[in-house]
Magnesium transporter MgtE (Jeotgalibacillus haloalkalitolerans), 456 residues
Amino acid sequence: MAEQELERETVIDEEYLIKSLENNEFDVFRDEYFNLHPYDRAQFYFRLDPEQRVKIYEYLSPEEMGEIIENIDADDEDYEPLFAEMNAQYAADTLSHMYTDDAVDVLNELNKDQAASYLTIMDQESAKEIKNLLHYEEYTAGSIMTTEFISIPEHSTVRSAMAILRNKAPDAETIYYTFVINEDRQLVGVVSLRDLITSEEDRLIKEIMSDRVVSVSVSEDQENVARMMKDYDFLALPVVDFQQHLLGIITVDDIIDVLDEEASDDYSKLAGVSDMDSRDRTPLRAARKRLPWLIALLFLGMLTANLIGSFEDTLEQVAILAVFIPLIAGMAGNTGTQALAVAVRSIATGDIKDESKMKLIMREAGTGLITGTVCGILVTGIVYVWQGSFFLGLLVGFSIFASLIVATLAGSLVPLVMHKFNIDPAVASGPFITTINDIISILIYFGIATSFMSYL
């Protein structure tokens, strides 16, 4: 009951906001709108019709609109129409008031002409900072870092550092870590807000800072950066060049976006879908992304059918063998997918080190041996009771035993080999491994059946 009342209250508030917007009640709308959490403001804005959003631009300043855009989790096809609705100067001013890394994310998703237009008409200082980040390769530390951070000289006092902090805090993305630099702007240490507050005002920053500061190279892959922040539980991570000059910082909110992006990407590939997007609302767009994998798997499936056809003589003599093809192929595909998931997850989380790869392979081999033995014995008994032929049961049981061992090894080895050659192991998708294991299991099954035809 309480949940229903809460839902009803939310709907009434939204309707009230829309009504005040359409009735041109400027002050009423702003009062109610800015009582909302920034995320809720963004969601309300995003759900409005284009005609209603045009009125929003009259009610909100570019700075206020910048905060809304920062809280929108939009994809390529969403930012472009939103900015197309705005006056060009208003859009450029909105981008200039956003944090630099967020503005870069938006510009990367707009078409090049649109992005270049905004950079041309926005203020030069903001445009310069944004252009500097746009030069960095996508999916690297440089592409996700922000330049809105606070740094202080190592020979400053706590008093002067606090003055710098008070002056720059409104524009900084985080103030909990303050990074310390030397005369050459090289990163030499870090001091926390707690240390600044609790230290004597006349003490030198050099005396209270920690010089064991962890940093990442500007060219480091964003997935490795995310793993490092998870391991160290950092709120922010400094980004440096090859000479240790401090270029920017990466904050935890950016890393959450990276983790979500990487997880979505891996899940897409494991499902055999290229660049999966929940906003693919048209069948044509969704089909275009799925067809490449499906066509590749279609040809692999034809290879499977051709293999079965090559054992036509065996099937003609013992037709009952055809009954167990889906069982053996399905079991091999399932166990291969399970092993694949374990291996890909171990690689993605960084659990796989050079010394533990063999351990993973041996563990999966042992798992395949145990599951193959149990399933093989179970199937042998069931087929014997069902068909009254012990040798047929033994044939099917042994085929499952061998197929499960090979499929488990394939599921774990394929992603490890791909990782060794710097290929994303997630592309060894579930459908791909399943089809490969279908081929292997059929070869095992009919190879054994053909060899021992006289006993059937």
Notes: The chain has 22 helices and six strands. The longest strand covers residues 187-192. Strands lie at 151-153, 177-181, 187-192, 216-217, 236-240, 246-251. The chain has a mean pLDDT of 83.
